[in-house]
Each structure stands twice: as structure tokens, then as C-alpha cells.
Design a protein that fits this description.
- This protein is an alpha+beta fold.
- The chain has a domain of about 180 residues.
- It is about 70% helix and about 10% strand.
- The protein has a 9-stranded mixed beta sheet, with helices on both faces.
- Helix 21 runs antiparallel to helix 22.
- The two termini are about 35 Å apart.
């Protein structure tokens, strides 16, 4: 029998074992194709307002998926080779050449990848219209989506995946060649022993994770960039030591307590866990880090959806804004609005100074208080009382459009004078019609600065039915000069807020891909445990253990394998999203709970499927 026939025979025999891996790969190929096809779809490129957003988002998500798939495919390939070490050893014992064995098993992985590539592309093209319709709905795009097959996207997907699969093939081939194949015959017969407990590493893991949390929460000390880098490094190190040493301490403590150990089927399930920690802690840690990434990423994109509603009040507090003190222009704007069948709910005018060298605008305290009152800003009285009397101090109002509060300055220079920043706030003032940070100064200081800097007049108008201002926007744009910086509710929706919808949609799809991959990794690992546990459960059944007790023991053992990384990942992600909440100055409890709930539901389905598969494997043997 030649190598190719032997490979096909092995492939058909193990196709069920590969089931979960195939599902994850097929879904990822289909998703990747749709991400790429967005860039080549003529319908999106024709919509000038969002074509750049679609292209940029598509390119970013494609790159993220490529790196993630490299990790997932490499990890899965290593798992399949380790899982079948004994089979490889048997081939070696039969006298088959090492290079031929390596070719057989590496080719099997390559065939698996090609199969998932073909099916994934078929499903991707089949559901591409649905994918783009959902994207258009999420981005609030009023456009018809036609069925479209992108040849460029198909070619790009095939090239990218074949490169990754070839690298995986080469890596698996070399890995088997360099292994002492004869010794693999007894890999599954090695005596299991309790791992040695390293109390120093166990306690250090908690200290390292605690230090990482402290750096993350107090990011302003090191600066956000450094804090982020050190937090990631310390969390990864701490998580690996947590599962490698601290978990051993906990399990050893539990099995030393007789009341706990002899309660129900704990002696079976927890003993198995105790003996397997040494082999599994790296997988636990990797899964915990992936869970953290999944929940944090989805929590971040979900937070945008909730945050945008609140941030919209700051960026677009008025339906129409423009800068002008010319009476004829103001009268012309009023005339156009009067003929537009819109009802005026508020007119706001305020003078401000523009300081180009500092890239800020300056407004006096009286105007600031009046605008907050007119706009009915929440907690304005508390904010105003906190500001107190401004003398040689200023209040720094964040520039509209800033998602995160990154202000680290303690003072700011305006012309030849330096002011101390008394407080930094994020409130609606001029909106994105004046795209600069604003300094609030006392009325006396404003009068002094007015002699040195150009004064301009801001005009803000709130209308009913702000979402129906497209025609009004075009009419005003024809009348007002460019220096008036016209900004409307319609313009805001056609720029930043369409992008948020696209990011949210693509982030949700990436989240699903990550969940499938994360669930598949832990599924593979637990499945390998089931083959090792066959003989144990066969003996237990012979000495009188009932089927119910075996299923209960399996449920606990598999449940702990799923639960331990989940708890650690959730804690990590809660800390990460709490830092994001502080940066945005907005409560993200709802999107965080939503992300965790969605992940637990999908993750729970993986647990149910894995448990059932585990029971079937040991029952077929017993």
C-alpha cells in the first residue's frame, strides 16, 4: 500500500475525531472570505461615505484572522501528532521508513486543511449576500445588496490558507522525522504521578497577576502604552504559573481532605485532574488567555454600541452648527431652516477664541455655564460647583470625538501665559463643529486673552426630526463658505457612526471565530484524555461502578477542565474592560455582562458536546 492510499485510509477512519476542528476551520475560511470580499465588492466601493471604512475594517480583520489562524492551525497540528504518537510508533515498529511516516501524517493534516478550505469557500460564497446584508444593516446603510462572487477574494483566500497549511505540513513533517519513533510505542503506558508542588511559583503567580492588575488600573503612572505592554506580559506569565503551580496546590489540598475526596464520585474525577495537571496546565493557561481575548474584544466592540449613544450627545449636541458672525449668513441659514418644515427647539450662540499655536479654543465661564444649562446637561450643578472660581486656572474640556480620556497634562500654555489645569471634563459644548479641545477661563481672563487672539461666533441650532436632515445639509452647504465649518446630524451619521456599526459587526464575527477555535482547542485536549482513561473506567465498571456514577465523574472532570480557564479568563477580562470603562469615562457593565453571557452560552454548548463525546468513547470500550 502506497503512502497516499494509507493517508486516505487514516483520514476516513479519523474523520469523526476531526469533526470539531473541521467545523472551526470551515467557519473561519467562510468568514475570512467574506471579510476579504468586502474590499472588492463594487456596491460598497460606490458608497463614498463608507468605502474607506469598509476597506480599512476589512483589511484589519483579515490580518487579525491570519495571525490567529496561524496559531490555531499550528496548535491543532501539534495536538494531532501528539495524540497519535502510539500509532506512529507502531508504523515504525513495522519497519516503515521515518520519512514515509512523516509524509503520511503531515499529508493527512494537509488534506484536512484543503477539505475545510473547499467547503469553507463554498459556504462563504453561498452566504456572502446574507453577510453583507447584515453588515449594511449594522452600519445603517440604506442600500440594496446583490449576490456577488469575488474572484479576487477567492484567490486571496486560497493563497493565504495554502501558505499556512504548507507551513503546518512542513512543521509536522520535520517534527516526526526528529522524533525517536520506537520510543513512542509506550507513550500511553507511562506511569502517571502527582506533580510536584512548587509553592514559591504558586504564590508568585498571584502576586504577578495582582501586580498586572495594579499596573492596568493605574495606567496613568507608566503611561497607557507601557502599562498595556507590561500588563499583557505579566498576565500571561502569571496565568501559566497559576495553572502550573497554584492549581496543583489547590487540588492537592482538596484530595487530602477525606470528607471531600470520598463524597460522591470526587475520588475519580479529582484524582484524574490531579494526575493530569502536569500535562494540561499549558492548555489551561492558553485557553484562559484566549477567553480573556475573546471576552475583552467583544466587550470592547459591544461597548462602542452603548458608548456611542452617550458620546453622540457630546459630539452632536445640536442638529446644525456653523461658525459665523455675519448677519446676512445667519439670516440666510434661518430662512433655509424655516422653509425646511423643521421646528426650531433651541438656538445657541457663543463667542470663543481660537488659539492656533496651542490648537485649543477658549470660552469664558459665563458662556460655559449658560450652554450647560441650555443643553440640560446631567449633573451640571455638581460640575459647576466643583469648578469653583477660576483665577489662574482653566477647566479642560475634551475634544469631541475622543473616545478615551488620555489627558496627562497638568498645565497648558495659551499664548505667552501658562495656566494650571484644574479639572478635565467631557461634556457637550460646541460638538464636533468645533473640533478642538476647549479651555474654560474666568470672564476676566477671557477679556484679557481677547485682545491677543481672534474671536469667533459659534451658532448651534437644535431641530425636531434630526435624522431627516440630509436635504437640509446639502442646501446649507451650498450657502455657507468653507470657513463656516458646517456640521450637522446627518454629517455625523455619515462619518463616525457608520464606522462604529461596521466595527461592531466585524468584531462580533471575529468573536464567534475565536470562540470556535477556543472551544476546539480544549475539546481536542479533553478528547485525548478520554482515550487514556478508557482502561480506568473499564476497571471501575468491573468492580461495580454504575453507569450513572461514571457519567457523574466524567461530568465533574470535564466540567472542571472547562470551568477553571473560564473563571480565570472572566476575571482577567473584567479588569481589562474596567480599565476601558475608566478611559471612556462611561459605565460598561451592560456590554461586559452581555459579552460574558454570550461566551458562557456558546462555551457551555462546547462542554455539552465534549462531555457526550467523552462518555461515548469510554462506554464503547467499557
Amino acid at each position: 500500500m502506497n503512502s497516499f492510499k494509507l493517508t486516505l485510509m487514516n483520514f476516513r477512519r479519523n474523520i469523526r475525531t476531526y469533526g470539531m476542528y473541521l467545523m472551526a476551520m470551515i467557519f473561519s475560511v467562510a468568514t475570512y472570505y467574506n471579510f476579504v470580499s468586502m474590499r472588492y465588492n463594487p456596491q460598497f466601493s460606490e458608497v463614498k461615505d463608507v468605502s474607506n471604512y469598509v476597506y480599512g475594517s476589512s483589511l484589519t480583520t483579515s490580518i487579525v484572522m491570519i495571525w490567529f489562524l496561524i496559531f490555531f492551525i499550528m496548535y491543532s497540528s501539534d495536538f494531532f501528532i501528539k495524540q497519535r504518537k502510539r500509532e506512529i510508533g507502531i508504523y515504525a515498529f513495522m519497519g516503515i521508513d521515518n520519512y514515509k511516516i512523516a509524509f503520511i501524517f503531515a499529508l493527512e493534516g494537509l488534506l484536512l486543511g484543503i477539505m475545510s478550505l473547499i467547503i469553507g469557500l463554498l459556504l462563504g460564497t453561498l452566504f456572502s449576500k446574507l453577510f453583507l446584508m447584515l453588515l449594511a444593516k449594522a452600519a445603517l446603510l440604506n442600500m440594496r445588496i446583490d449576490f456577488f462572487i469575488s474572484k479576487e477574494a477567492i484567490v486571496e483566500t486560497i493563497i493565504v490558507y495554502l501558505i499556512i497549511l504548507f507551513i503546518a505540513f512542513l512543521k509536522g513533517y520535520l517534527s516526526i522525522i526528529r522524533t525517536n519513533l520506537i520510543d513512542l510505542m509506550n507513550t500511553l503506558k507511562k506511569a502517571e504521578e502527582l506533580p510536584k508542588v512548587n509553592y514559591l511559583k504558586g504564590l508568585a503567580s498571584l502576586i504577578i497577576i495582582g501586580l498586572a492588575y495594579y499596573i492596568a488600573v493605574n495606567y496613568h503612572i507608566l503611561g497607557f502604552g507601557r502599562a498595556f505592554m507590561w500588563t499583557v506580559i505579566l498576565v500571561i506569565i502569571g496565568t501559566y504559573w497559576l495553572f502550573g503551580s497554584f492549581l496543583s496546590m489547590i487540588i492537592r489540598y482538596l484530595i487530602s481532605r477525606k470528607r471531600f475526596l470520598y463524597r460522591g464520585t470526587n475520588i475519580i474525577s479529582f484524582s484524574n485532574i490531579a494526575f493530569r495537571i502536569k500535562d494540561n496546565y499549558r492548555t489551561f493557561a492558553a485557553v484562559a488567555v484566549l477567553i480573556t481575548t475573546c471576552i475583552t474584544s467583544f466587550g470592547t466592540v459591544s461597548s462602542l454600541k452603548y458608548f456611542v449613544a452617550e458620546n453622540h450627545k457630546i459630539e452632536v449636541p445640536y442638529t446644525v452648527t456653523y461658525i459665523s458672525d455675519r448677519q446676512e449668513e445667519i439670516e440666510r441659514v434661518d430662512e433655509i431652516i424655516e422653509n425646511s418644515n423643521h421646528k426650531v427647539e433651541l438656538r445657541e450662540t457663543a463667542n470663543f477664541l481660537f488659539v492656533p499655536e496651542s490648537e485649543v479654543v477658549v470660552v469664558n465661564l459665563s458662556s460655559f455655564k449658560r450652554i450647560l444649562t441650555d443643553l440640560n446637561v446631567k449633573d451640571r450643578e455638581k460640575l459647576i460647583s466643583k469648578m469653583g472660581q477660576l483665577r489662574e486656572e482653566v477647566v479642560y474640556v475634551e475634544r469631541p470625538g475622543i473616545l478615551m480620556n488620555m489627558l496627562e497634562k497638568k498645565d497648558i500654555k495659551v499664548g505667552d501665559k501658562t495656566y494650571k489645569i484644574k479639572a478635565g471634563v467631557k461634556v457637550p459644548l460646541f460638538g464636533s463643529g468645533v473640533p478642538f479641545p476647549c479651555l474654560v477661563v474666568s470672564d476676566e481672563e477671557y477679556e484679557g486673552l481677547r485682545l491677543k487672539h481672534e474671536e469667533k461666533q459659534f451658532n448651534g441650532i437644535i431641530l425636531d426630526r434630526p435624522e431627516d436632515t440630509e436635504d437640509l445639509t446639502y442646501k446649507l452647504a451650498q450657502e455657507l463658505p468653507g470657513e463656516a465649518i458646517l456640521y450637522t446630524y446627518f454629517i455625523a451619521g455619515a462619518t463616525m457612526y457608520d464606522l462604529v456599526g461596521i466595527v461592531y459587526f466585524l468584531g462580533a464575527f471575529l468573536f464567534l471565530v475565536f470562540i470556535f477555535a477556543t472551544g476546539s482547542i480544549i475539546y481536542f485536549k479533553i478528547l485525548s484524555e478520554s482515550f487514556r482513561d478508557k482502561a480506568k473506567y473499564e476497571i471501575l465498571k468491573k468492580i461495580g461502578t454504575t453507569d450513572f456514577e461514571i457519567k457523574e465523574a466524567v461530568s465533574k472532570q470535564v466540567g472542571m477542565f472547562f470551568l477553571m480557564p473560564l473563571i480565570v479568563g472572566i476575571v482577567h477580562s473584567i479588569v481589562a474592560i474596567s480599565v476601558l470603562s475608566d478611559l471612556l469615562e462611561y459605565s460598561l457593565i451592560i456590554p461586559t455582562m452581555l459579552s460574558i453571557a454570550v461566551f458562557i452560552v456558546v462555551y457551555g454548548l462546547f462542554y455539552i458536546f465534549t462531555r457526550r463525546k467523552y462518555v461515548n468513547i469510554i462506554e464503547n470500550q467499557a
